[in-house]
Every structure is written in C-alpha cells, then in structure tokens.
Design a protein that fits this description.
By secondary structure, the protein is α/β, with parallel strands linked by helices. Helices cover about 40% and strands about 15% of the residues.
Amino acid sequence: MHNNVRPIAPVSIAGLTPNSPSTGMPIFELVKPTDLFVDPAYQRNISEKGSRQIRRIIEGFDWTKFKPPICAYSEHEGRTMLKVLDGQHTAIAAASNPHVDVIPVMIVEAEDTISQAKAFIGQNTDRLGVTNLQMHQAALAAADEDAQTLELVCHRANIKVLKTTNAYTGDGCRQTIAIKQIEGLISRRGAQRSRRFWRC
C-alpha cells in the first residue's frame, strides 16, 4: 500500500525572527565545467580521498544524483570568472567525463574573496568530510576575528598552524593541525594565557 504524498507546508515561526536575504536569489546557468575556477584562499586541494571520490562520481555519473556546484562571479586580474564555492569534486568529475559537455551550476552573489569564503563556510558548516583545518583556513580568508586571534596566539607562541594535514616538515616540532583544541583553550583561558601555555 502506497503512503500518501504530502505537500510542503510552513512550520510555526513563533519565537523566530525570519531573516530577510541580503543578496538576490541565486540563478542557474549551464556551463562547461572546464570554465570554472577554484580559489585556494578558501578551497582545499584535492586529497587522495578526494581523488577517489571523483573517480566514484565519474564511474557512477547520473543526473538523478547530480548536485549542482555553487558558484559566484568574480573579477581576477581584469577577467570575470566563475569560482566554485562548493562542489569542486563534482565539477572535476564532470570535466573528466567525456559524456558530459555542460552542467547546471547555481550562481550566488559573493563578489570578493571574503564574501566567497563566508559562503563556503555557510555551505560546509556541520558537513562531513570538511575538516576543522579547512574551515579554519576559510574563516581566515573570510577575515573571521576568532580565526585571526588563533593565528596570532600561535604566531606569538612560535607555533605554526599548518594549512593541510600532511604539511609537517622536519621533526614536526611546534607545528600543529589541532585547531579545535587551540580554539577550546582560547575560549576557556583567553588569548594571553593560551599564548603562555603554548610557549611552554
């Protein structure tokens, strides 16, 4: 016996203050995936795990499973381009599949790097597969005050926050990827005490 379908219906908003969007509604366009770009200021490099994910998408490419990448127009060295804010694995897989010429992308308003980094954070908050380290790097690009404080505390304590999990050099001394632990200490003890702690 089939279940009855149900319509989308609003929920009660008692006690809530609905936000009025500060930007216009996104638009959809069909683009060649090779016409898209990635900004390393807030986007991660493709890891081995990411490469495996891309291969899986290529082998199982199906429009019913396709999630359009989220992009934003941006000026770079006098040229207008579409940067991928979320979905670079999907875009790379599409670019690698000879049966796919163009893909739909959702284009949002986020003209500068700070706006784009904030959009990246918004898309990836609480999402599996995006590490605390990647979110921290994006927060730095978005000029987030807490991220800047963390970097300053570590810099003054002569500790280097690595950009990727496999970027250790030498013996790895005074290098870290432990973003959440440092954030927690700063939150509990403040920036000054944390700096003294990490210098020990």
